[in-house]
Amino acid sequence: MACVNMNGMLAAAKSEGYAVGAFNILDYNSMKAVIEAAEELHAPVIVQVSVKTISLWGYRALHCWYEELAGDSVVPVVLHLDHCKEPEIIGNCIAHGWTSVMIDASGFPFERNMELTKQVVEMARPRNVTVEAELGEIGGVEDDLSVAEEDAHLADVEKSVLFCRETNPDLFAPAIGTAHGLYKGTPRIAYDRLEQIASRVPMPIALHGGTGLQDDVFTKCIRLGCAKINISTQLKRQFIISFTDHHERNPGDFEPVRYISCQYEAMKSDVRQFIRLFGSEGKA
Ligand code: 13P
Questions:
Q1: Which of 85, 155, 261, 284 could form an S-S bond across to 135 if both were Cys, CB 3.0 to 4.6 Å?
Q2: Is the CB of 21 inside a 6 Å radius of any atom of ligand 1?
Q3: Burial group, residue 139, by CB count within 10 angstroms (0-12, 13-18, 19+)
Q4: Could you give the 3-state DSSP secondary structure of residue 243?
């Protein structure tokens, strides 16, 4: 059975010094591209879904696609809910068989973040569903969550230690200077902060805002303890650009299947590149 939660794959990634790619999908075609790229490269992979995408397709459809594509796969595949601050939505994912969830209560005061995270861990753990939690505020726009640059702030080390001890998530996402969406300038990554946090909390670390980071940033963050790397914007761009490019090159083509194939190939090719870059090729 290749439908798994994040625990085994991230423990292996952390101890062997590579990262598992978590790719935000948009539809059946993009989920297929992500899973089939991972299969080709024998890599573990995380299919990540934003709340907006759930609103479009529903919990059940997304889970059915996952079961169909990953159920008999030769590689382990996680179905993970990305940034969500609503316990009700998280509960629905768990009830529909999703294997992993993220509670992002980082926009609330610290105590409330701890309270909500604890509540989600209590709900998820008995169902064998893994939980990612966030501290600090990651800048940029992800789904309906928008954090202006001036409001983004790094996770505090002592608060990170307390937060992880009290809430005990499976995966910790501290804000370390990356941002969602396209970077306007060169991002200033707080490597020292990442190193201090990673050395003091026992769980693997998630790196958000992967689109647009330089190769050496990934390498360094992985070396410092990041075992899951999120990529969303790049796949969204490919989804649109591959489609419009095909139309520009073939203005008389009105066969949708060819457009869908172009999207598939473009997204799959990007996923392959990230898997190689993160060092997870051959790790499944
Ligand atoms: P990007 O959109 O910058 O790739 O970030 C993805 C992410 O962190 C999703 O949670």
A1: 155
A2: no
A3: buried
A4: helix
Query: Are 176 and 190 within 8 A, CB to CB?
Result: yes
pTM, entire model: 0.96
Is residue 98 within 8 Å of 81, Cβ to Cβ?
yes
- Ligand 1 contact via 142 beta carbon (within 6 Å): yes
**182 compared with 54, residue with greater pLDDT:** 54
Share of the chain above pLDDT 70, in %: 97
* pLDDT(147) > 90: no
Spacing, Cα 208 to ligand 1 middle (Å): 5
CB of 180 closer than 6 angstroms to any ligand 1 atom: yes
| Distance between CA atoms of residues 112 and 280, nearest Å | 36
- pLDDT for res 115: 98
Residue scoring higher pLDDT (184 or 94): 94
Rounded to the nearest angstrom, the distance between the alpha carbon of 255 and the centre of ligand 1 is 32
Structure tokens at 204: 């693997």
